[in-house]
Amino acid sequence: MPKFYYVARDKNGDKRSGLEDGANQEEVISSLQSKDLLVVSITTDAKADLSALKGGTAVKAKLRRKHGGCNDEDKVLFCRQLGTLLGAGVTILKCLDIIKQQVSSRQLYEVLSDLQKKMEAGLSFHEAMSKHPKVFSELWVNLVESGEASGNLAVILNRLAGYLERSAAFKSKLVSALVYPVILFLAGFGALMFLSIWIIPTFAKVFEGLNIKLPIMTVMLIGFSGFLRSYFLVIAGIAVAGFFIFRKYISTRGGKRNFENFLFGLPLLGDFFRALVVERFTSEMSTLVESGVPILYSLEISEHSVGNIVLSEIIHKVKEAVREGKPLSQPMEKSGFFDPMVVQMVAIGEEIGELSNMFKRLNTFYQEHVDTFLVRFISMFEPVMLIFMGLVIGTIVIGMFLPIFQIATVGQN
User: Fold this and answer.
1) Residue 160: burial class (beta carbons within 10 Å; 0-12, 13-18, 19+)
2) Distance between CA atoms of 5 and 45, rounded to whole angstroms?
3) In this structure, are residues 69 and 107 in contact, taking their beta carbons and an 8 Å threshold?
4) For residues 218 and 224, is the Cβ–Cβ distance under 8 A?
5) Which neighbouring-strand residues pair with 18?
6) Which residue has the higher pLDDT, 63 or 351?
7) 3-state secondary structure of 133
8) CB atoms within 10 A of CB 322
9) pLDDT at 107 over 60
10) What are phi and psi of 140, to 5 degrees?
11) Cβ neighbours of residue 139 under 8 Å, at least 6 residues apart?
């Protein structure tokens, strides 16, 4: 098994180097990362190993990038590593150089390289980050700016990493919970299409040669199947066109607002969608306020990063009311969007000076609320979907076999 010479840094920022056995670079890097080491360089060249061990400079590793985009996991890891290195006293430019050598995202690698160039040209860290809005949201930029101004950038980044980890875990839990209902729905829809397009026409051809009067149910099923087969491409085209028209509509501010109001007005599901956006709002506010960002500035950031136009417009009105000197809880109550519990806890938080803790508790409550709803929804969706598909498929089976029963009855007579 080949030996690899590595240079790495531990959690305290201290340099570590040595030889590590491994089948390839990826295996060695994974092994070192499992030991909480940040890989700076790695090489298999024996001469480079000897030179480095004697005090020479190791050749920087050209680590293989595993994917092109920059996902939530990449951002969380970057934020956590950067906060750890800064807390250990490593300069920010050196931190970026260390981290970019081991990122698994090509996009993030290029972004970090660009951050280094822009900072070396005189920009501050948050100014350089603002040039990459697709990777670093407004929340990132403003929190980093706050950390730079207060001199607590490492602390702010660790809090931001915690927020990103919670958000990513919550998003992953939502996706996992919705996978099963979606698969069940698609499987049922596929079975229905298969029966309608292939099975029913086969029975229809058999019945044509029997010269019998078909039951009404059978006639309707055969008619539906014929319509579906004849106009399948037209129906599919209309569905695809409708989908793109709908996407275009909700890409406009007015269209998105109307769609969000429609979702909030749905029976049962409306409360779920409202809880989702309130969960994000409380999560962002708890992180911002805890990081020392002024309340008006926190509302400004949340207004642009909450991801929901209806709530964004409400936050804007709340911000203007707070600017006029009103307590935060008063315009929140006036909006009618927030539950009384939210308003009361915010009011208490303002009175006792624990607003960030109150937002954090509200965020925990809404995460649990959403989790509970999803569990109940899935437990209800499965039997309802199974019963619905049973009725549909049962109707098709009965409709196709009724003429056969009719023939059998006539034959017996």
Assistant:
1) buried
2) 8
3) yes
4) no
5) 6
6) 351
7) coil
8) 17
9) yes
10) -55, -55
11) 160, 284, 287, 288, 301, 305
Task: Please give the radius of gyration of the chain, using alpha carbons only, rounded to the nearest integer.
Answer: 30
Rounded to an integer, what distance in angstroms lies between the CA atom of residue 381 and that of residue 378?
5
Q: Going from the N-terminus, what domains does the chain have, and what CATH number goes with each?
A: 3-53 (no CATH), 72-163 (1.20.81.30), 169-413 (1.20.81.30)
pTM of this prediction exceeds 0.70: no
Q: Look at 33-47, 209-223, 382-396 and tell me which has the smallest mean pLDDT.
A: 33-47
Q: What is the pLDDT of residues 183-194, one digit of tens each?
A: 888 888 888 888
> Does 64 score more than 70 pLDDT?
no
Q: Is 41 helix (H, G, I), strand (E, B) or coil?
A: strand
Summarize the confidence of residues 5-21 as an average pLDDT: 72
Amino acid at the residue 84:
T
pLDDT of residue 60: 43
Tokens of 250: 């909700």
Nearest to 102 by CA among 34, 47, 46, 157: 34
First to last CA, the chain: 84
Q: What angle do CA 44, 47, 49 make, to 5 degrees?
A: 55
Predicted confidence band of residue 62 (pLDDT cuts 50, 70, 90):
very low
Burial class, 254, CB count within 10 angstroms (exposed 0-12 / middle 13-18 / buried 19+): exposed
| Predicted local distance difference test score (pLDDT) of residue 248 | 93
For residue 91, give the 3-state DSSP assignment. coil
87 SS3 class: helix
CA distance readout (Å), 40 to 25, 95, 101, 198, 397: 13, 10, 6, 60, 66
Picking from 273, 272, 196, the residue whose alpha carbon sits closest to that of residue 231 is 196
